Amino acid sequence: MTLAPHVSHVSPSRGRWARALPRGLVLAGTLLLTACALPPSLVSPPQPPEQLAAAAPAARAVLAPMGVLRVGVYAGSPLSLLEHPGDPSRNAGLAHDLGRVMAGWLDVPFELVRFDRLPDLMLAMGQGEVDFTVTWTSETYGRDVNYSLPLLDLEQGYLAGPDTDLRAAADLNALAARQGGVKLGMLNGSGAQAPLARRHPQIEIVSLGSYTEASARLAARQINAFAASKSVLYPMAERLGDGARVLDGRWGLETVAIAIPKGRQAGMSYLSRFVLSVRREGYLQAAVKRADLRGAIEPAIR
């Protein structure tokens, strides 16, 4: 099936910044990493490191075979795209920001390809219609894409709805033991069903179609909590208000990486060096800060 995504074209990024990048602290208080304060738009990333510049012509033919880097995004996720319609220069998200850097270093135009949902994006990537995105690694999607070295790990936790008495992850099982009928939501296709069922044998696991649906179910008290990446849960809690909170503790970690279509193994060496460079030089940490990505920690596998 061929999807009809929304495409927006952005000119390639070239040139150096006029000033050095300051160093700082980043990653939601859970980790101290080298960081840099990038200009809000990330329109003009500096020239690539010498090794990557030398490898760019060969990598460009593999990683951007259409002569443009088609970056797949879905709105509303700090891993992908956070839009500011009144001021596009403030648009953020790891796929958006790192895609700009990659396009600049490959010296090709940067093109956003928008989707409503991650599954649609990954289907398009499997069909070769998208060149680059950032997402958590998944065995399901791994059949159609190749993942880079890890960018970072994200804590997976629980969001309890408004006016909740729950404080910690362990309170969910205690509540189920006392009264039964406890419902825990999860995102369909996230791969969370099995680990959550093991941790919460007395709780009904409810599969939901979107984060919007999860927020609505929490607000209506139709589920007691929602399990997902803390990077998503903290903004959801703020939007819900009325005492909604992210519970202490976590039920897992998810690894975040760059994904490219299968069949482009010749570009994996360049992609690995790209990941190491953006981690070392601070572009990753700057993208994390711009997207207000919380729950991020240094990857266990480096």
UniProtKB/TrEMBL annotation:
Residues 68-287 form the Solute-binding protein family 3/N-terminal domain. Coiled coil: none annotated. Keywords: Signal. This is Extracellular solute-binding protein.
